Structures are given as structure tokens and as C-alpha cells.
Amino acid sequence: MSTTSAPSGSAGITLGRRDRGVHAREVLSDADAVLAALDPEQREAATALSGPVCILAGAGTGKTRAITHRIAYGVHAGVYVPQHVLAVTFTARAAGELRSRLRDLAVAGVQARTFHAAALRQLGYFWPRVIGGAPPAILEHKAGLVADAATRLRLGVDRAAVRDLSAEIEWAKVGLLTPETYASAGVRAGRGEPGGLDVLTVARLMEVYEQVKTERGVIDFEDVLLLVAGIIEENAEVAAAVRAQYRHFVVDEYQDVSTLQQRVLDLWLGDRDDVCVVGDPSQTIYSFAGASPEHLLGFPRRFPTARVVRLVRDYRSTPQVVALANGLLTRAGRAASAAAAGLELVAQGESGPEPTLTVHPDDVAEAAGVAERIRGLLSAGVRASGIAVLFRTNAQSEPLEQALADAGIPYLVRGGVRFFARKEVRDAILLLRGAARASTGEETLGDEVRGVLATAGWTAEAPASGGAVRDRWESLAALAALADELAEKRQGARLADLVAELDERAAAQHAPTVEGVTLASLHAAKGLEWDAVFLVGLSEGLMPIALAEGWAAVEEERRLLYVGITRARRHLHLSWARARTPGGRAGRSPSRFLDGLIGDPVERRRGTGAAEGERRRGRRSTLPTRCRVCTGTLDSAAERKVGRCGSCPPDYDEELFENLRGWRSRVAAAAKLPAYCVFTDATLVAIAETVPRDEAALAALPGVGPAKLSRYGQEVLEVLGGSVAPGRAGEA
């Protein structure tokens, strides 16, 4: 008697032909059981087994449940063969979670992998057959080759700059940019000056980096996707084999897909449309790394027959937390991505305490206040592992680590290195220890420490670039602030006293990490949740970060705060501090995102914020607040400098602007300074658009202070007047 085997992962019973009706009923029963635990929207998603499907899933709405049950339902119903399903995620942890849940649903054989893992497997299989031999070795880190390329170009870059340049190369490659197309794209995207280099120099560095990589016979992680795309595109047999193997695709966190990943997905699909994408445009927080929500939002346009399912029932957070999250997005200055997607969370859980907003005099007091609240939660029975403190930059962790250590509360740092374990901090302490032996005590402690830190890269002004350069500066600045604090507390404190204080602090922070409060950046918190969440440092300059230039960047900061809020199940506490250090100038103001969202408006306006400081100096009134082109609100300092929002086209002479950039590059190179130390891109744009004809008009522009006017004013006016030959300005 001939037999028919059930698909792997279904009922698992081998039946004769005459029993097929019984088998069908058993499989249907298994499939129905898969759907039993789903809400109506999740069920709609799970039963949409064919054709293009777009699941817009808000935070806490059970998207992983929906897609795993969709796969399981398709397998148990006999529509899918598990080995023909590829589920793509963005982290190995998420892929493991998918496989685990599918096993619980009696489904085995489905491939759940990250984009890179899936592509690497295909590269390893097809390379020997198409190219011959083993595929090239993969670089674990770019830094060494980037540093080598910089050396060949005689560029003076330090370790932090190399990290930032490595990240910039990754951004370019996932955007399918070449060294030839990077410079113009970098300017359009407002990438600034990665590693302190202008975009033309970065483009040249990219070219040399590729040459070094080829010489050594290695590839980087982006090359894995690029090579797989090239092999599938150029070889019809490979394309046919891949498409025969994988017939059904599920892509999680689709809002984080890059242009390169989308290209690979398109090649996997070919002319088919059996793909299900899942994502939340309100959680797009990786644009700096090349992610774009446009693939998700544009999915229905690309596939007009697509079935769109919206998951809005929030099972994670209390109605109070959900209301705050919804309110944050509805207060966007322009149409928020969530509104465009039609998502507004609907809380399903029990009521809980109202979120709170607390204002502290300084960062130390804020950290102490957080520690005190955590102590209360622990006393009330909340586990330490169910509590998280989230912040915008890793440099903010130091006072929090100290406060928790002082309170005897165990903690762990996620997604970052403990403050005293950071290389720049360890190196600085070694320098301070050596300087303490030769110290005469003639200078104030603060001045002496800053003199030592200057040799480690600290500068009086924060760097204009972000990334590792900014993080390192923040770490060193925290040491300088600690010196000031010690000097205020202990009259006559010497450098040796500071070193001893640092040793004591480092020793006190060796807390257990098995059951502890989580300290994490907002980016590192993505995909996680806790019973209680503390969002700290919610002041202008930190949230949104000062480097967020233009409406799009500011709105990404809003989404980042949204991610932080939606990590909380029950308790949510927000806070900000007026000053960085105890007794310091109260120069901070609350984040614009808090306006009308939470707390007492009068209390939020109290204090001497940065905006008030600008008003006292009489400068705020000189800056426009509305775009002169579209009349929209100007959201950043750079936009207010030029009087135009980032999305509106510039109205300067391109040749003049390039002349100014060339002059700036030569001046910076002659002085061995990063280009932004001469003038930032925003200031150059303002100069090119206004074309001042004398020093008074030039001095009126934001970013041109007395020192820069004296140093560069005459040369700038000569460039504007066309009296400077292309190679003369800035020489010798």
C-alpha cells in the first residue's frame, strides 16, 4: 500500500490514501489549535498565508506571536513545507526566539536567520560552484584596515575617529553607495564630518579601504550581502536554486531594512510576491546606520494587492503608559510616522500608576533620586532584573552607576562598557596617576586635571561630530567634572586625592550582574521590556541630542523616546536635571518632547535653562524660527542658522559653496584641525546663502564669533568676493 507523508512539523503521522480524509481532519484540528490563542487582528495576520502581507505592529502588540503562529498555521494546514520558509530577523537573539517558539508550536525545519547569516550560508554554498575555491575570509572588525587606509593617505586619525569612519563606511555600503557617489549623498543626508574629515576625504578613504581589503583577500560583513546579490543577479542557475529552496518569506523589524538588504530580499523573491513583512515605523531608530521606514510604509504601493493588517492592542503596558506613548507621537511637529501608518496603541492591561516627571538640580541628584525610587520598588517586591534605567548616551551612566553602588543596589550595564572599564577612562586615570607623582599643587585641581586630560584628547568645547568621538569626549568631561566636584567638597584637594577617589569609585562598582538593575542606552533597550523603567536626562541637548540637525533627525529622537516609554510594563519615571554638576550653572532646559505631554508646564519652565541664557545674551531673537521657504517650524540650531529647514532646497550658488568648502579644508589642514573647528557645515551654508559683504554682516551670522571673525573673516570675504585664487586661501 502506497503512503503519503505529512509535511514536516504537522501531525507527523504517515497514513494510507484511504485515510486521507481522517488525516485532513487531524491537520485542520492542529491548525485551528494554533489560532485559538490569538486576538482577531493577530488571527487575521496568521490566516493570511499567501500573497504580499504587511503587518503593522505597534509596541507590545504581540508581533512575534502573530508571525510564529502564521508560520505554524501554514505548516499545520499543509500550505507550507517548513524547509521552504525563510524567516529573516535582525539579531541572532530574535532568530533564536523565533525557532524556540516554532518548536513549541510543533514546527521544525523552518529557517530563521539574520540577513547576514542567511546570505553567508548561501555564499558558502554557491561560491565554490560559481567562483571556485573557498570564499574569502570575513573581517571581524574594520578598524585595522580603516587605520591602514588612513595611514596611506597620511591622515592623522585616532582610535575614536577610526571607529566613526568604520561606521560611516558601513552606512555608505548598506546604502549601495560607492566612493564616487558617497560625497554628494553624504552632503544630502547631512552626515557632517565623520571622524573630523570632510566628505570628499572620507570618499577617498573608502576607495583606499577597498583597495587594502582586496590586497589582503578579505571581505567585510556588508560584502557578504553585496556578493550574494551579485551572484544571484548574474547567474540564472543560482537564482533558480535559491528561489526553489525558499518560497515563503517573513521579514521581522522591516522598518530597519537597509537599501542593501532590500536588494537581497528582492533577488530572493524574483518575480514572486509571497512575502510577509512586519514592522513598526514608530520604532525606526537606526537611520544613522542606513535603516529606512520607507520600505515598510511604501509596501502597499509596491504591492497594490497587499493585505495590510494593523496590530494595535497593547498587552505589555498599562493604559497610563500607553496614553503617554500615544501622546508623544501625536505631538510631532509634522505628520508622525505612526499617524501615516494609522497606528495608535489600545491598552489591554489593568490600570497602573501614572507616569511621573521629576526635575533635579543636577545629574548627581538625579542619579540619587533614581536610586532612592529603585530602593522603594525593591522593597515593594519588584525584582531588580525587572527594573531598567535608560539614557541617551553611554557617558550618562557614570553617576547612575555610582548612585546605585552607593545604595548597595546590584546593576548591570547592557550595550555598553562600564564607565571605569572604558579604554579612554582607564588611559586617563593612568595619566592622572603619573601626573599626581609630579604635581606641585600650584594650579587648581580642575585646571590641573584638564591639562592632563588635554593630552588624552579632551577639549574645552564638545566635538561637533557624534559617535565614538563624542562618547570619548563625554567620558573625559565627566572626569573633569568629578575633579571640580571633589575640589568643592574638599578644600585643598590635590591630584593624588582625585586618583584615590577614582580608585574607590571603581572598586565600589563591582556589583553582581546576575540579578541587577539594567543600565542601558535607549538604542540598546530596543526589543526589551521591564516592569519599571526610568528615563533620565530628558533635557534639550540630550533628548533630542544636540547633534540632531533637521526635522527628520529630531523626529528620530522622538521615536527613540517612544521606544524608551514603551519598554515599561507598569512603572514609568521620567526626569531631567538643570545642571551637570552640583553647584554648577543651571543652564539646561527640559526636552521639547515633554511640552504638553507630562508634568506641570510652570515647573518645566522654571530655572535658568539654555534658552533663557540665550535670551539674556540677546541672541535668540536674532534667529528665525520659521523656514523662509515653506514657513514650517525650524527644529534645530543648524536650521535656524540658515533660516531654512533641512527638507527645503538650498538657494546658494553651488560653485561659491564649494569654494568655501575648499578654503575651509585647506585652512584646517594647515592648522592640523578638523574642518568643523574652522566653521561647521551649517555656518558655511549660512555664509553661502547670505553672502555677507563686510565683517559686520559676517559677524551677524550664528557660528561666527569674535575669535573666528578675527582669524578667518578677511579670508572669507575674499572668497566671497572672488579675489582668492583656488589654491591660495589658507596657505602658509
The CATH superfamily of the largest domain bears the name: P-loop containing nucleotide triphosphate hydrolases
CATH topology of the largest domain: Rossmann fold
Kindly estimate the percentage of residues that lie in beta strands according to DSSP. 5-15%
Helical content band: 40-55%
Assign the CATH architecture of the largest domain.
3-Layer(aba) Sandwich
Distance between the termini: 94 Å
* Backbone structural class: alpha/beta
Which descriptor suits the 3D outline? globular
Please tell me the total number of domains: 4
Number of strands: 18
Major sheet characteristics: 6 strands, parallel
Number of helical runs? 30
**CATH class placement of the largest domain:** Alpha Beta
Which strand order does the major sheet show? Answer: 5-4-8-9-3-10
Rg calculated over all Cα atoms: 28 Å
Describe it.
The protein is α/β, with parallel strands linked by helices and 732 residues long. It folds into four domains: 3-120 and 226-311, P-loop containing nucleotide triphosphate hydrolases (Rossmann fold, 3-Layer(aba) Sandwich), CATH 3.40.50.300; 140-219; 356-616, 3-Layer(aba) Sandwich (Rossmann fold), CATH 3.40.50; 624-732, Orthogonal Bundle (DNA polymerase, domain 1), CATH 1.10.150.80. Helices cover 48% and strands 11% of the residues. It is built from 30 helices and 18 strands. The strands form five sheets. Strands 5-4-8-9-3-10 form a six-stranded parallel β-sheet, with helices on both faces. Strands 13-18-17-14-16-15 form a six-stranded parallel β-sheet, covered by helices on one side. α23 links the parallel β17 (530-535) and β18. The longest helix has 23 residues, at 467-489. The model is unreliable at 1-26, 333-340, 509-514, 601-622 and 723-732 (pLDDT under 50).
